[in-house]
Amino acid sequence: MTGERCARGMNFADVFDYWTRDLPTADAEQVEQHLFECSECARYLEEIVAIGRAIGTGMRGAQFQSIVTESVLNSLSRDGLRIRTYTPDPGKTIPCAVWADDDLIVTRLRADFTGFEQVELLLARNDGVELSRIKDIPVGAATREIVDAVPAARLRALPACQLRLVLSGVREGKSQVIAEYGLEHAGNVVRS
Amino acid sequence: MRSSQPWQEVADAMLAETIASAPAGTATDAEAELYRRFAPRVRLFGLKHLREEAAAQDLVHQVFIVTLERLRAGEVRNAEAIGSFILGTSRTMASAQRRVGNRREALLDRFEDANAMAAPLDAATLDLPRVARCLDTLPLRDRTILILTFYAEKPAPDIAAEVQLAPGAVRVARSRALARMRECLSGGSDRTRPTPA
């Protein structure tokens, strides 16, 4: 399967839309009928489902780092993940730590994104070692903060150290820092 | 009748005819091939409509019991349409399962078990660290769209509202992201970004 359609002419995007319930009922029934006649599309759908389930499993297992939306955060809470949230103010440093039972560490970064594009988030130690960089964070007119979710297991491996979060972007053709935040990371904390 | 072709190359209709024309239960190879081809499709149908792996697996068993019984009894009139027959059987059986499921949910609502365990996570068939690396190679908006699609199970219009795109653009981005994931998982590069801490 290499093109956009199967050998019998079905558009693979329609198979995807069938799975995500984005097709009107009549069209969905047509795709469903086709799936029972076309092994190529059936295999394609199997792949979609396998990838989808892996993404779902990875999210529920707090295995992915990503900028997330509020609705994803709500779903993670409903799924029982233990989420620790930090909300540093721009230009300030706050203490933070990862506790033994944390699943996900969420950092809410508020800033004025007006006019910015190509926004990126750098996480680095104060000694300059870069830990992660997320590029092309979509921001719109309504964006007031971005929500970065990091698996606690990843941060647990960090020793106590000073961390910097730097949001930067391009405005009027110039690359510039939007805001910078400090985290005084106390390392992995175990309740006694 | 079947030539000397391997079963894997025989058309669906020929498989159905072979099962129908053989004494009941003797066309085991043809039955196994029919199962190999259609069981995954019935399972996917079950997952879509019944939303649970266990229910989908039950559906596969029920549909194949009926399909093989009807074929052996010569009650499938049009072997060419064996796919449609299996789909029709799946629809009927899934509808019956949903009714049972609804009754079960109503009973659970009335007599909720306070000690009920959360459903276990699906056994991942894909290597999760590799999925994570492949997901990391996607542009952030595409990654978010896949997460909203598969984890939050949101339809395109809802995703569009969240990521400030048109629904059509979401569907395009979603297909593109899936294609990149498939390419990455099948051996393409998943090392284009530094591994986060």
Q: Would you give an account of this structure?
A:
The complex is a heterodimer of chains A (192) and B (197). In chain A, helix 1 (12-19) packs across helix 2 and helix 1 packs across helix 3. A five-stranded mixed sheet of chain A has the order 3-9-8-5-6. Chain A has a four-stranded mixed sheet with strand order 1-7-4-2. Chain A contains five helices and nine strands, in the order H-H-H-E-H-E-E-E-E-E-E-H-E-E. Chain A has helices at residues 12-19, 25-35, 39-60, 70-78, 152-156; strands spanning 66-68, 83-86, 93-99, 104-110, 117-125, 130-137, 145-151, 161-171, 174-189. In chain B, 66% of the residues lie in helices and 0% in strands. Chains A and B meet through helix 1, helix 2, helix 3, strand 1 and helix 4 of A and helix 2, helix 4, helix 5, helix 6 and helix 7 of B.
What's the arrangement of secondary structure elements?
The complex is a heterodimer of chains A (192) and B (197).
Chain A: H1 12-19, H2 25-35, H3 39-60, E1 66-68, H4 70-78, E2 83-86, E3 93-99, E4 104-110, E5 117-125, E6 130-137, E7 145-151, H5 152-156, E8 161-171, E9 174-189
Parallel strand pairs in A: 2-4, 3-9
Antiparallel strand pairs in A: 1-7, 4-7, 5-6, 5-8, 8-9
Chain B: H1 12-21, H2 28-50, H3 53-72, H4 82-110, H5 128-137, H6 140-150, H7 156-163, H8 167-185
Mean residue pLDDT of chain B: 84
User: Oligomerization state of this entry?
Assistant: heterodimer
Tell me about the biggest sheet of chain B? none
End-to-end Cα distance of chain B: 62 Å
Average pLDDT of chain A, rounded to a whole number, is 92
Number of strands of chain B: 0
CATH class of the largest domain in chain A: Mainly Beta
How much of the sequence lies in strands of chain A comes to 35-45%
CATH class of the largest domain in chain B: Mainly Alpha
Number of helices of chain B: 8
What letter string, H or E per element, gives the SSE order of chain B?
A: HHHHHHHH
What percent of residues of chain A adopt helix (DSSP H or I)?
A: 25-40%
Radius of gyration of chain A: 21 Å
Form type of chain A: elongated
CATH topology title of the largest domain in chain B: Rna Polymerase Sigma Factor, Chain: A
Number of helices of chain A: 5
Integer count of domains of chain A = 2
- As for the number of domains of chain B, it is 2
How big is the Rg of chain B? Answer: 22 Å
CATH architecture annotation name of the largest domain in chain A: Sandwich
Provide the spatial order of strands within the biggest beta sheet of chain A.
3-9-8-5-6
